[in-house]
């Protein structure tokens, strides 16, 4: 894939903003007012629009916007057996990390039909001619809302169960033509302490997967709030043991801090650097973006740098998302021009 891309390729993390009409659709679906054909059509339309928004903005490597998923991981639990829903902790007030549905494992957890990411990719592939990135939550992150219950010793053991599920999904994705796959593990930053074993688990999940692999570690984005302590430093050097061609990190909402880790640890993998703050309504100017990219280029060679937002857009309105995508592409073009590449 990289041969076909310009220098400083632009991409997104995964999720696109949810259009207003699609919020209405999801309400109608939950009330039982849509049939299966209506539902399928609405989700296809949402994916088409997410890809069109990215194409119009000029993003080099697009995703399907994760429009078939709900709140990053919540829709995957509907595909699992062996879990039961528990009463919510809090139903009142703002939607935050103590709001999503919680589950408990009551027997061995299985995902008989897979995670559905292969079907997402198959649709996206035939409905866009842009290079595509497929995204998949990592094994630890998939356990986010499941308690190990009586069936698993701890979260770690449950996550190992998902490493095998993910590995099968990723290999099926490659068979369908996916050549760039990003694994999302915000939970790495949320549950620190066993980092070496988290990386072993990640490596098992991507073992034998013949594609360009990216590992996205962020600090959480629910209701545009971080959950983890916003530092990568403690993950080094262990994170470099991950079988990843690219590390995809948040920088913008941390004012570009810790970019100096790159030369400090002699990092050879690519960097997908967040140059758009998805947690802020402030819309970056192209010059803001160019400045961020140029500050990274002091530490990372241009041929190893991908340009992306800090995280997914699902918690921002669509109109701001579009403005931010436009600024990201324009800012990248400014830098390419200054490097004599336009
Ligand atoms: Zn993220």
Would you mind describing this structure in some detail?
- This protein has 10 helices and 9 strands.
- It is of the alpha/beta class and 342 residues long.
- The protein has one domain: TIM Barrel.
- The strands form 2 sheets. Strands 3-5-6-7-8-9 form a 6-stranded parallel sheet. It has a 3-stranded mixed sheet with strand order 1-2-4.
- It is globular, with a radius of gyration of 19 Å.
- The two termini are 20 Å apart.
- The protein binds zinc ion (ZN).
- Zinc ion binds next to loops.
- The site of zinc ion (ZN) has 7 residues, from loops.
User: What's the arrangement of strands in the largest beta sheet?
Assistant: 3-5-6-7-8-9
Overall geometry? globular
The largest pleated sheet is described as: 6 strands, parallel
User: What is the CATH domain class?
Assistant: Alpha Beta
- Rg, rounded, reads 19 Å
Share of helical residues: 25-40%
CATH architecture: Alpha-Beta Barrel
Helix count, DSSP H or I runs of 4 or more residues: 10
The CATH topology is given as: TIM Barrel
Beta content: 5-15%
Low-confidence spans: pLDDT under 50, at least 5 residues?
none
- SSE pattern: HHEEHEHEHEHHEEHEHEH
Number of domains: 1
N→C terminal distance:
20 Å
Secondary-structure content class: alpha/beta
Query: What is the number of strand segments?
Result: 9
Bound heterogens, unique: zinc ion
Q: How confident overall, as mean pLDDT?
A: 95
């Amino acid at each position: 894939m990289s041969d076909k891309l310009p220098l400083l390729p632009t991409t997104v993390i995964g999720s696109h903003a949810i259009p207003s009409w699609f919020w209405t659709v999801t309400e109608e679906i939950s009330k039982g007012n849509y049939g299966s054909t209506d539902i399928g059509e609405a989700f296809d339309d949402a994916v088409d629009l997410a890809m069109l928004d990215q194409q119009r903005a000029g993003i080099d490597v697009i995703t399907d916007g994760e429009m078939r998923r709900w709140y990053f991981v919540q829709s995957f639990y509907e595909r699992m057996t062996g879990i039961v829903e528990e009463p919510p902790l809090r139903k009142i007030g703002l939607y935050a990390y103590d709001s999503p549905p919680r589950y408990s494992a009551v027997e061995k957890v299985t995902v008989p039909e897979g995670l559905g990411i292969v079907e997402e990719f198959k649709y996206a592939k035939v409905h866009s001619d842009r290079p595509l990135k497929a995204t998949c939550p990592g094994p630890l992150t998939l356990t986010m809302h499941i308690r190990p219950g009586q069936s698993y010793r701890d979260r770690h053991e449950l996550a190992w169960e998902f490493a095998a599920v993910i590995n099968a999904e990723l290999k099926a994705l490659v068979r369908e033509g996916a050549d760039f796959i990003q694994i999302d593990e915000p939970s790495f930053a949320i549950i620190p302490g066993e980092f070496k074993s988290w990386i072993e688990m990640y490596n098992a999940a991507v073992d034998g997967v013949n594609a360009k692999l990216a590992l996205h570690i962020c600090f959480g984005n629910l209701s545009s709030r971080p959950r983890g302590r916003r530092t990568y430093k403690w993950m080094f050097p262990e994170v470099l043991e991950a079988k990843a061609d690219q590390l995809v990190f948040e920088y913008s909402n941390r004012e570009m801090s810790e970019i100096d880790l790159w030369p400090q640890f002699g990092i050879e993998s690519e960097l997908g650097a967040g140059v758009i703050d998805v947690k802020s309504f402030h819309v970056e100017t192209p010059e803001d973006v160019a400045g961020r990219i140029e500050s990274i280029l002091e530490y990372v060679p241009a041929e190893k740098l991908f340009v992306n937002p800090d995280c997914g857009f699902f918690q921002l309105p669509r109109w701001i998302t579009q403005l931010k995508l436009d600024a990201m592409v324009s800012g990248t073009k400014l830098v390419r021009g200054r490097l004599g590449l336009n």
